[in-house]
Amino acid sequence: MKQFSKYKSVVLFIVILVAVNFAASQYFERLDLTQDKRYTLSKASEEIIEDIEEPIIIDVFLKGDFPSEFKRLQNETRQILEEYAAKNSNIVFNFIDPLAEGANAQQVAQQFYQMGMSPARVNVMENGQNSETIIFPWAMANLGQKSVKIGLLKNQLGSSDEDRVTNSVQQLEYAFTDAISKLIYPRKKKIAVMRGNGELPNPNIADFVKTLQQYYFMAPFTLDSAAVDPQKTLQELKEYDLIIEAKPTEAYTENEKYILDQYTMNGGKSLWLIESVAMEKDSLLNPSGTAFALPQDLNLGDFFFSYGIRINPSLVNDMYSAPIILATGNGNDTRFNPYPWFYSPLTSSPNDHPIINNIEAVKFDFANPIDTLKNSLQKTVLLSSSPRSKIEGTPREISLDIVGEEPDIASYTNGEQALAVLLEGEFTSVYNNRLKPFEIQDNLNKSKPTEMLVISDGDVIKNDLQQGAPLELGFQKYTGTTYGNKEFLLNAVNYMLDDRGLMDIRTKKVTIAFLDPQKTAAERTTWQLINIALPLFILGIFALLYNWSRRRKYTRKK
Questions:
Q1: Transmembrane residues, as ranges (predicted)?
Q2: Which of 13, 162, 222, 249 could pair covalently with 198 via S-S, beta carbons 3.0-4.6 A apart?
Q3: Strand 469-470 to 465-466 pairing
Q4: How far is 208 from 214, CA to CA, in rounded Å?
Q5: What's the whole-model pTM score?
């Protein structure tokens, strides 16, 4: 009977164990106990992950020994990818050490540069000593023959390693979900790159156009036929979801303006990079080193005024700015040196809008201040100059001689100046209650809900050239600095054309606690003693008490 009861207990235990395992296989749940819910994927991410039907392989190049801050980035990347894999088994990820088996760091770094994935050099403090190491903060998502690069490290001028890692962790979900979205969804939206009004040449916008082609269909569009067949021109333009006007320099006709206005009324979205002052940095490269900044009338004053903004024909002079690079010497002795240049503002972000959240400073050149006017549209200043700014009227002579002069700090009293403004809502037609340039079918005086972004400097979208080939937008070849121009513009286009709520992920906030490296180095010996000596001391006390207890026990028995 006892034997039967024993077997019955064993069988019951096995049955319960099988039942628990079966239930666990059918009902899977993960709990996020972090205060900021950093491992809870957004609804937009989950919807995109659910649509994955083929294996996606994600290779992460963050394996190896790193400083503690970047070890956190490695761990956070692994943990969030585990969340992705838990949602869909088609997601497989691997961590790869590019420097495994004694690979030459410089050769590997060069290979990453050629693939468009710049390595990062970080300072390592160990035992109070500083050294430098190289890491590869990138991932590559692969679906069949398609691949997408994923940057894992966010760089911001002046940020500490802790800030860089925190900012990077905040953007991990967006970075991976955006890459997966590009892999699994076909391109649908269409963007028109406007030509015919003296816009930037194709080579100078090539890098940004190439980047956008990963997401959207791109095509040039001209308004030249507006004078001959404006109705047809408008109908063709309405087929595009967004237009990009990259630094036009020739005035618009009323027909062209009316077409652009009615495009907006029909819900078309637009990105304007436009200037009210004609001035180029290259025009200073003459024997005198001087040039005149002159007002530029593109016949768009009433156009933007009706929408609630005004681009002033003035220049923003900002103490927080990017340097100008000037050559000294001749031939092989030529040196390229940076000098202070206050006409190249490095813009700040006055809010945490998804377009500008956690991006590097955006570099402007000869930017114009923007005034916002009251109307029914929602206006968001995305980028502005620093509080140490002043406004200079035009016409004005600009000279390279100012690089050697001390700025008059007391004159920088105009405060922050808006340089990029996002307009959202229902626009009122520029030609409402006005004589129309031509008659069209279905004229609209009120738009569908739409967006327009106005940036008061066309050079924000301009990439440099090297031997005729376009460099990455925002990259300064002589200093090696990469500004946030490309990410800002890409975020802006994605935001205006986003129909999945993906951009909302960029506002996610994550708080990460780091050790103080200086305090850690200073107190290292103390904590080593505590960690080694304290357990031994406690063990010794326990041994003494144990021996005392045994002696007392057996002494009594005798």
A1: 527-548
A2: 249
A3: antiparallel
A4: 10
A5: 0.79
